[in-house]
Write a structure and sequence with these properties.
- 2 copies of one chain form a homodimer.
- The first copy, chain A, is mainly alpha-helical.
- Chain A has 2 domains: 54 residues, Arc Repressor Mutant, subunit A (Orthogonal Bundle), CATH 1.10.10; 126 residues, Tetracycline Repressor, domain 2 (Orthogonal Bundle), CATH 1.10.357.10.
- In chain A, helix 1 crosses helix 2.
- The first copy, chain A, is elongated, with a radius of gyration of 18 Å.
- Chain A binds a DNA duplex (30 and 30 nucleotides) through helix 1 and helix 3.
DNA sequence: GGCTAAGCTGAGTCGGCACTCAACTTCAAC
DNA sequence: GTTGAAGTTGAGTGCCGACTCAGCTTAGCC
């Protein structure tokens, strides 16, 4: 298969700027933010954005991939009996800062091929789950799908519900108790 | 304060049709569906929709109120030690059928004054929570806000995540265990 | 330095949607 | 039945956002 030629230096620079701007814009304003706004924030013309990412979905898919990879990496850095709880807490607390991820993870978004991008995150969380179960802090009856489901649901709830710190703590306390005790 | 005069018979009929159509359309397509589509489904001209509901948000607010009242009523019909769990399970299972509610409950939506409309639902769930705690099926440490938060989050997760019956069951098992055992 | 393909620009096109309004229709009070 | 106010109609308006493209600029190879 043909490999596309390397980008010119200026094009590489612009591509990076666009991705950074898109991440900021979509995280703040959600996936509904306009491409125009991304271009403005990146300091390029709108045509340039579309040269690098032919459709808005392509752009969303690209930043999702980056964001998910980053989340997976931070999950990978944790471990031990409470690693899963720590990751869970962190993701929920920062839900607002990663609005785009939560947004798109939740709804099939704008029809992005997520599975591949989500894979690493799922794998990292699976690792944390395994460790927690080995340590006995999470019941053996719990499996990965429901952990991911809860992770996404609660993050999304926190984001859109604008939960304060106390509500986050209390809600997570219920979820964590459930993970420990599930019959 | 002035009371608006009673509607003419045909206007009443149209108003009801519009509400029914809006409920169907927004439940199927989400809050993003067009007013045009609502008018088509109701069998009236678009101008008629806007005569009854000056803005799209007014229309959304109206059906939200109906839907929430209906949910509150169904919660009111339940009771006993497992009433809360039953209501929870039912709402999550039907999340897809009430897409509009979940949609708008979650995000402040299109800026609708929800508090008033949500009140009755919260009260009904509070009643179920009280009964469950009296019966000992839910820990006394649990309070209403986190129950509502979980209810909304998990419903939304199920809706957008397209959870199958098994995932719903497994996820709810974790939540219910948490409600029982919360330290 | 000269050249050219790669890349950039931004005004413009297109489609979709919330909302308007002048002309027309219908209910209901008498 | 007549009448007028209430209600309906649907083509039209305005706005916004995704996407295009002809003309211009520039990186980078000789």
């Amino acid at each position: 298969m043909p490999v596309d030629p390397p980008l010119r230096a200026d094009a590489q620079r612009n591509r990076a700027r666009i991705l950074d701007a898109a991440e900021a814009v979509f995280s703040e304003l959600g996936a509904g933010a306009s491409t125009e706004e991304v271009a403005r924030r990146a300091g390029v013309a709108i045509g340039t954005v579309f040269r690098h990412f032919p459709t808005k979905d392509d752009l969303l898919a690209a930043i999702m991939k980056r964001l998910l990879a980053r989340l997976a990496a931070s999950a990978g850095r944790l471990g031990g009996p409470d690693g899963l709880f720590e990751f869970f807490t962190g993701m929920v607390a920062e839900a607002a800062g990663i609005r785009a991820v939560v947004d798109l993870l939740a709804r099939g978004g704008t029809d992005i091929r997520l599975p591949d991008a989500v894979g690493p995150l799922t794998a990292a969380v699976g690792e944390l789950l395994g460790q927690a179960q080995e340590a006995g802090t999470v019941s053996d009856g719990v499996r990965l799908p429901e952990v991911m489901a809860l992770l996404v649901s609660v993050s999304q709830g926190a984001l859109y519900g604008g939960w304060d710190a106390e509500l986050r703590t209390r809600t997570l306390a219920v979820v964590f108790a459930g993970l420990k005790q599930r019959s």
